User: Fold these one by one.
Assistant:
Number 1:
Amino acid sequence: MQRWPDRLWIVRHGQSAGNVARDAAHEAELDRIAIKGRDVDVPLSRLGEEQADALGHWFAAGHGDDRPDVLLSSPYRRALQTARHFRDAGGAAADERICMDERLREKEFGILDGLTTHGVANHFPDQAAFRRTLGKFYHRPPGGESWADVILRLRSLLDTVSLHYGGRRVMIFAHQVVVLCLRYIIENLDEEGILAIDREADVANCSVTEYRFDPAAGKNGNLVLERYNTVAPIVAEHARVTRERDSIVAARG
């Protein structure tokens, strides 16, 4: 019996109101991002909705070479909205259920949540120093997570995917760090390998990362990368492509 899905797409959510606010805060060199409430509740921007619609239209038109029959999403509002816009635009069957999984949530930033780079330097200079020493892969702010922590929960998530969705077509809606950490696990990368990919380009909003099952890969077959960070669906509808850097602080991405 095939362990992995036939196809696995990983999509970063569309541009969020938090992305817009964070960019404005960094440009103004403010200490905090002007977003009230919880990160989990931050919605898509209007542009983010357009990006998610464009992605759905692209799959509906057959450019994705099939549509997903399993939709998994981070419980964060911006990811769920992306999944719903995608489905409602024809990217999946209209009655396809969107399954939330908390293991796909955004990386938790703990005491640094909502701070800009300037804010961290001004309020928590010790944490800025720790991160420079440990690097972004292993630095864990108080109350938050490192990339390694995110990878730990995503290993569990992929165990669930392999157990329940072998031979299916699965699409995941999540966040920038989640996209990168899933690549780390699926492709058996090391710290330097995934950080090199991260340095090459930011993960664009509503970009597509795609894997196909190859029965000839490894002893029992494996997922093989077909495309990474593809923005063709967004460009096709002339929606603006946006990329937000996962900074030292709460990227709200």
Number 2:
Amino acid sequence: MHVIGEAKGIKLYAPKDAYFSYFNSPYFGHSHAAAIDIYPHQQEWGCSVISPVTGKLVRIQKTMMGRKKEFPTEQYDFGIAIQPEEDNQAIVRILHCNPSLKVGDSVVRGDEIGSAIRSRYFNYWTGPHYHIEIMHMDSFARSTQSYPLDLPFRFESKKVGRLLATVEFLVNKVTEDSILGYPRGLSHTTIDGYTGLSGISNGTDIVGILDGGISHYKHGGVIGQEDGVEGSTIYLEKNPVGTIKRSLKGASFFLRNTSVSSNLEGIELRGLSCFIYPKHFVKHDVSRLLLVPSRYGEFVGLISEGDVCELKIDSPNNTIKAE
């Protein structure tokens, strides 16, 4: 397992074959670099959730969710608290996991602790994952109280090469929820064995890996960029996606200020979902990219696995106010 975040002396680990995100979510912890979503490589609902720490399971909270959605979901979600061995006043809170253990059980980092739930808190394009964060043990029910994380990524900026607006997209999988595939020709960046779309500063320098929903969420981050200048612009290829608001340890955080539009074979997409991927999700130095359809099920029957489609990314001259 690999360390992907740390706070208060507690390290959080992810399986080597899982991908993950800090900022690709609209919820509070993901706009404050205080939470991580880990996506197991199996990418199936009900797949195993792995403990990110060694410690003791001290609390389980079962929550009935709201009304049904247009896609299949579970009726209940769960919150799990593990007290890490490093600090008896802290907990690691894990969400979206149906626990297979009980309160009082000891766990070792890497142990299976339950299975991934499709929560009604998700959007239709959200894949199987579990959410982790570190907080004081008295803050279990308060999602705004998780500790900001230090991220273990550093990247020395380098000049960007050719930037493209239109590329070939090799389709890997099509579902009602999303289109998965590999964009041939977009700039990619690798840090410590993890790869993703390049975050470009002011149109000239690659400064890290883009992490976020472009542009269906109001914020995002650049992993590896520690010296981002407040007010400077972050780009995806030639397209401005946001303005840096603050630098963090191991990343910079930006707010969306322009709308990046994208389409596949001329059909408008809701957005591009950018993650940090291990080698398991990389082919010929190109990391996987998740395309979000404008409507649930829109691409089923239109394109198929193995198709090579045209993906176009553009920036209309309109500014969207962050929600």
Number 3:
Amino acid sequence: MTNSWTNWAGDQSCRPAALAVPRSRSEVADLVANASAIGQRVRVAGAGHSFTDAVLTDGLLLRLDQLDRVLDVDQASGLVRVEGGITLHRLNSVLHEYGLAMPNLGDIDVQTVAGATATATHGTGARLPNLSAALHSIELTLADGRVIEVDENSDPEAWRAARVSLGALGVVTAVTLQTVPAFVLEAVERPLAIDDVLADLDAYVDGNDHFEFFAFGHSPIALTKRNNRTSQPEKPRSAAMRWLDETFVQNTVFGAVVALGRRRPSLIPVLNRTAARVAGHAHSIDRSYRVFVTPRMVKMTEMEYALPREHSVDAIRQIKKLTDRAGLDTPFPMEVRWVAGDDAYLSPAYARDTCYIAVHMARGMAWEPYFRAAEEIFDSFGGRPHWGKRHFQTAATLRSRYPEWERFADVRRRLDPTGTFGNAYVDRVLGTA
């Protein structure tokens, strides 16, 4: 194995001094202790779906691909113990076998559980928090090789810090998740005028278990998605129809549109309008994890911010104006979702109901001017960046946005006093240990 690593988007890479794929949690402890003893820093790579330099290191890089076992399932309580390297895709399938499910999911499932929770990955649902809120307990391997377990009772400070940790406290080798009984969702996709959606936004957000929409620049249409729990039996689309929609239309055709926009940026306005106009209605009734998840194959880079929910309409309108501006054209739509507040110290939704707005740029196109302009808008609303997506913040600009910043810092100093689990990204956004 060569000592190199590249993320999914292909725009972040590194050549660590050592890259290891441990086969057991005890091997993780030995590797970390040995690296720490010779002064190497340690980072962990999940599935590579972060767009930041969060993984990059010139020290030891761990990949937990082999730590993907389900360790225990308690169907009565819904508590499920898994190793940190298990992917959401595998987890969802196993949970369904036991009649269980994650209460909410994002729109891709290739991430590892440890990576998805460490960056506060989220779905949409005004009454549902991000994925890290499901962490009932967390097993951490520390710099000296010690293994500790933290939960709300044994160490509430560390538990609230470790749920969204950016990998800065230790290696998450196992977690216990609080799951729910498996459920079925009725999914309805429908294009609507964005002005009509914004005029009655609270009714859409509060009137559905899960509501989100996509909106292209240069188009007055919002592509809305409503997913609601139902007692109806599953009526999934046929494999052929699912392939036609999710693989051919949403990836192959959309990929061709993106490629054309990259080659001929002057065509992006008409491509935006055309893509929004041809979007049709869709309806299905299926297992929750099949409804939540959609394959994402078109390479891009992304910025996403968490804003106080009460600013949703104003922020959406301002970002929409930005995407209409000449010179900041993108072939991708913005994506808007909502989540409930939670109490993890570094959660972007900490202590406030939240609207997430994501902006994207195709791989190979200049993204910085657009993202910097978007970030100015997000900053004006007190936005907090998604930890796995591009932003230009530092510890100095972020500290005041997180009421419990110092409590996280105290836990970090206690669990990783030598800064073993840092890197340039962690030092930049959290400060040095």
Number 4:
Amino acid sequence: MIRFDQVHKRYANGREALAGVSFTIGDGEMTFLTGHSGAGKSSILKLIALIERPTRGQVFIGSQNTAGIKPRGIPQFRRQLGVVFQDHKLLHDRPISDNVALPLIIAGVPKREIDKRVRAALDQVGLLGKERSRPLELSTGEQQRVGIARAVVGKPRLLIADEPTGNLDPDLALDIMRLFKRFNDVGVTVVIATHDVHLIDQIGARRIVLGDGRLAAPAVVNP
């Protein structure tokens, strides 16, 4: 599903975020990217989502080398991908149903289908019945669930998340991780960047450990 082959990433300010990183994540696998702040976790997710491009090396998603995807092809590429952010990135002046529907509206899905899929996504994250609530009327954990519903409403094959539990207390964080695990259990490939090793241990999925832009030793740990 995902393969990094000797990937380097250097930003315009000269910072080398990744240096010769190679790994493979299988189709339907749940994997954690972990390591200290600045280790390169977020850069890997940005390369997967084509928010950034590698300086050197190759990134494959499915059988596709992302180097061959032109800018005009990026929106179509991202339709197979769900992205969850730490800070939710919700539109506070819209009800949560509109927030969740946004990817489908952009994709041109018919309204009747949008309404059906939004309700299904909210049901999956335990928020059915709160469609007309505004984000600021919800708790922090509920807002994160809205972000997850928006990420999965398009039925992606791949779900990525950058520190999705960073602002939550331990119990809420574990609830959110179990929610990701449920999506993985039905075949979605899940990649989560987090520094919370204790939380990873409770979920028990594979991890890829990074340090200073390189794979740490051991590079991959299977609990």
